[in-house]
Write a structure and sequence with these properties.
The structure holds two protein chains of two kinds. By secondary structure, chain A is of the alpha/beta class. Helix content of chain A is about 25%, strand content about 25%. In chain A, the strands form five sheets. In chain A, strands 1, 2, 5, 6, 7, 8 and 19 form a seven-stranded mixed β-sheet that branches. In chain A, strands 10-17-11-12-13 form a five-stranded parallel β-sheet. Chain A has a three-stranded antiparallel β-sheet with strand order 14-15-16, with no helix packed on it. In chain A, β12, α6 and β13 form a beta-alpha-beta unit. The chains are: A alpha/beta, B alpha/beta.
Chain lengths: ~325, ~110
């Protein structure tokens, strides 16, 4: 018999909503949160598109509320670094960095996605010394200084606009000649006198690795291949996200971009394993859609457990097993 | 609230406080979500290394000079000093075990 009815990995909107619903279904869920606890909303400021908050709510506050709500109904949250999962035998086994492991009848994967880097070497090397993927964390260090934002989507425009509070000038470097961002974000960005655009271009190098801090970027025009050096003090990268699925390679079907493939709601190719949120969604990627899919995964897991003859009665579910 | 074992460094006392032994400094600010996530880890490390290494926090809002000197332009950042010399830099979140191992490495050598 398994230690647990259901384990949820991930503590963003998808994971916490799955925890809320499975807790209310009396399944005594265990939610495992990793280093990036709370997910991407922890890196945002005001969230204006979460229904029910007409004046908006701060991302970290929203996550604190969601977590408290799930815990109120008995969801157990543990901090831990899952290093290995075995989904080929039943019950499923999760192993942790501290050497302990736990078994479960069902699993909800809600590990989300993390910011993508340029992967040119110099960007990672200067991380924390002028290169950042989090405007709300690091914008403060660039008061009165020129910076660049790389990317052309909604999050790139949001970061660029936010960073104009601090920076003397924000140069947006984008690979194409039009933005992918929504009309409302484009209008805001174009209207901002501190924001300039370099089109059809990519950042091919971040300077100056030898000095240990950002002094400029090399920008390559993709049409002419002409390279120019732009002196500036900071680079914010907003070129999208990669799903956090390295744990599941070879265990669960992934698509060509590494996202978990789901069907009929939140089901993966393994019965009893469900996925919710950005780890399986590269299209909508909203807090509200993540929460919605977390709810779906919880209901799917509940139905799956009902179909098992031997699933744990709620009172038999263990408390902490790790 | 930060554990009482965690010292508070400022622009004024930084050089004195980091001059001896192994010292881990957490650069943070109130408005930084990930810093809040790291805070319990820093508290736990302070207790774990009590008497062997110093664990401290430096608020970058109130103390702009030290972050400038070490080119800290992102938080959370952890700097480890050994006998007054910068020995290690960790940018962003890291598991407590990893940070503890890093401190041990410098205590042992």
């Amino acid at each position: 018999m398994a230690d647990r009815n259901v384990i949820i990995i991930g503590s963003g909107p998808a994971g916490l909503t799955a925890a809320l619903y499975t807790a209310r279904a009396n399944l005594k869920p265990l939610l495992v949160e990793g280093l990036e606890a709370g997910g991407q909303l922890m890196l945002t400021t005001m969230v204006d598109n979460w229904p029910g908050f007409r004046d908006g709510i701060l991302g970290p506050d929203l996550m604190t509320e969601m977590r408290a709500q799930a815990e109120r109904f008995g969801a157990e949250v543990m901090q831990g670094d899952v290093t290995r999962v075995d989904l080929q035998s039943r019950p499923f086994t999760l192993s942790f960095a501290n050497g302990k492991s736990v078994t479960t009848e069902s699993l909800i994967i809600a590990t989300g996605a993390s910011a993508r880097w340029l992967e040119i070497g110099s960007d990672r090397k200067l991380s924390g010394h002028g290169v950042s993927t989090c405007a709300t964390c690091d914008g403060y260090f660039f008061r009165g200084r020129p910076i660049a934002v790389v990317g052309g989507g909604d999050s790139a425009m949001e970061e660029a606009i936010y960073l104009t509070r601090f920076a003397s000038k924000v140069t947006v470097v984008h690979r194409r000649d039009t933005l992918r961002a929504s009309k409302i974000m484009q209008d805001k960005a174009f209207a901002n006198p501190k924001i300039e655009f370099i089109w059809d271009s990519e950042v091919s190098d971040v300077l100056d690795g030898g000095k240990g801090e950002v002094t400029g970027v090399v920008v390559r025009n993709l049409k002419t291949l002409h390279e120019t050096t732009v002196p500036l003090d900071g680079v914010f990268i907003a070129i999208g996200h990669t799903p956090n699925t390295s744990l599941f390679v070879g265990q669960v079907n992934l698509d060509e971009n590494g996202y978990i493939r789901t069907h009929a709601g939140s089901k993966t190719n393994i019965a009893g394993v469900f996925a919710a949120g950005d780890v399986q969604d590269h299209i909508y990627r909203q807090a509200i859609t993540a929460a919605g899919s977390g709810c779906m995964a919880a209901i799917d897991a509940e139905r799956y457990l009902e179909g098992l003859s031997h699933h744990l009665p709620p009172e038999a579910a263990l408390q902490t097993t790790t | 609230m930060a554990s009482e074992k965690v010292k508070t460094f400022t622009d004024n006392n930084f050089d004195d406080e980091t001059s001896k032994g192994v010292v881990l400094v957490d650069f943070w600010a109130e408005w930084c979500g990930p810093c809040r996530r790291l805070a319990p880890t820093v508290d736990a490390l302070a207790s774990e290394f009590d008497g062997r290494a110093t664990v401290a926090k430096l608020n970058v809002d109130e103390n702009p000079n030290v972050p400038g000197r070490f080119a800290v332009r992102g938080i959370p950042t952890l700097l480890l000093f050994k006998e007054g010399q910068l020995a290690e830099t960790i940018v962003g979140l890291r598991a407590k075990e990893d940070i503890a191992q890093m401190i041990e490495r410098h205590l042992g050598a």
